[in-house]
Amino acid sequence: MPELPEVETVRRTLEPLIKDKTIKNVTVWYPKIIMGDAEQVAKQLKGKKIITVDRYGKYLLIRLSDDLTLVSHLRMEGKYRLVTPERPKQKHEHVQFEFTDGTALRYDDVRKFGRMHLVETGTERITTGIKHLGPEPNSSEFSINYFEKAMAKKKKNIKNTLLDQSVVCGLGNIYVDEVLWLSKIHPLSSAQKIPREQVKILHDNINEIMQKAIKLRGTSVHTFLDAAGTSGNYQNELKVYGHAGQPCVRCSTKLEKIKVNGRGTTICPTCQVVY
DNA sequence: CTTATTGTTGCACT
DNA sequence: TAGTGCAACAATAA
């Protein structure tokens, strides 16, 4: 599941593979991936040059010539891969961008949940999803002051609050479980009941874990690979996600798996306090 | 066969 | 009206 560190890793590996290339042809095998009229979008992309690849939250923003931006969300299993256009289409490949230099970028997505949206550069915020994104971890907008105020307003539980992309963007199921364990906060705690001191610790840990995960090129559980086909290294740092039944590395209590708003959640029932 | 998995959206409910 | 909860989406593995 690409969360912010994984999407950033994809951005860094994808950019050098496609930068300055010109799109010769776009083939769409599964039109639902592309918002709007897929054939129309494919036609529009023809002849456009890739300028850079940006990222906002879990969204990739592929900047094209003529002031166009292809907004791409990988959702759970989306992957980009550079191939030769002659390579037979694989089972879960849904879109191909063929370049004039004889290479091709393929979009692969087992679950078909990923989405691409072609918009005019500068209007990305109009796109559903990006419109509601809150600040990025480690940004000046994500200040302790902002975070304390946001938490005070939320009546829902802390896990659901951190998964809410309008509060802070980029966290998903894996990193929320890790951040809450590190902060010794139970996921079912009411966001507004967490003491000021703990909110400060939580804020620091969100920034720290995101930074470290980006440095380690993301977490490869299930099937995450970057655009170069390389796996990440943060999975070796995980303390709770995927470790249910194993002893907590802090207190040796057996880690438990519970459901929080329908999502699988791993916790240490001893270290993590309910507020 | 059933259940769990995952991020976001759109809709229902309070 | 705004905040919150939850099914739906699709495919696969256990």
TrEMBL record:
Gene Ontology annotations of biological process type: base-excision repair
Quaternary data: Monomer.
Job of this protein: Involved in base excision repair of DNA damaged by oxidation or by mutagenic agents. Acts as DNA glycosylase that recognizes and removes damaged bases. Has a preference for oxidized purines, such as 7,8-dihydro-8-oxoguanine (8-oxoG). Has AP (apurinic/apyrimidinic) lyase activity and introduces nicks in the DNA strand. Cleaves the DNA backbone by beta-delta elimination to generate a single-strand break at the site of the removed base with both 3'- and 5'-phosphates. Involved in base excision repair of DNA damaged by oxidation or by mutagenic agents. Acts as a DNA glycosylase that recognizes and removes damaged bases. Has a preference for oxidized purines, such as 7,8-dihydro-8-oxoguanine (8-oxoG). Has AP (apurinic/apyrimidinic) lyase activity and introduces nicks in the DNA strand. Cleaves the DNA backbone by beta-delta elimination to generate a single-strand break at the site of the removed base with both 3'- and 5'-phosphates.
Superkingdom of this protein's organism: Bacteria
Catalytic activity: 2'-deoxyribonucleotide-(2'-deoxyribose 5'-phosphate)-2'-deoxyribonucleotide-DNA = a 3'-end 2'-deoxyribonucleotide-(2,3-dehydro-2,3-deoxyribose 5'-phosphate)-DNA + a 5'-end 5'-phospho-2'-deoxyribonucleoside-DNA + H(+); Hydrolysis of DNA containing ring-opened 7-methylguanine residues, releasing 2,6-diamino-4-hydroxy-5-(N-methyl)formamidopyrimidine
Cofactor: Zn(2+)
Gene Ontology molecular functions: 8-oxo-7,8-dihydroguanine DNA N-glycosylase activity; class I DNA-(apurinic or apyrimidinic site) endonuclease activity; damaged DNA binding; double-stranded DNA binding; zinc ion binding
Name listed for the protein in its UniProt record: Formamidopyrimidine-DNA glycosylase
Enzyme Commission identifier(s): 3.2.2.23, 4.2.99.18
Family annotation (HAMAP family): Fapy_DNA_glycosyl
Similarity-based family: Belongs to the FPG family.
Species of the source: Lactobacillus rodentium
SUPFAM superfamilies assigned to the protein according to its UniProt record, in alphabetical order: Glucocorticoid receptor-like (DNA-binding domain), N-terminal domain of MutM-like DNA repair proteins, S13-like H2TH domain
Keyword set, alphabetical order: DNA damage, DNA repair, DNA-binding, Glycosidase, Hydrolase, Lyase, Metal-binding, Multifunctional enzyme, Zinc, Zinc-finger
Cofactor annotation comment: Binds 1 zinc ion per subunit.
Domain Formamidopyrimidine-DNA glycosylase catalytic: 2-114
Binding site residues for DNA: H92, R111, K154
Domain FPG-type: 239-273
Record: active site: P2, E3, K58, R263
NCBIfam families attached to this UniProt entry: fpg, PRK01103.1
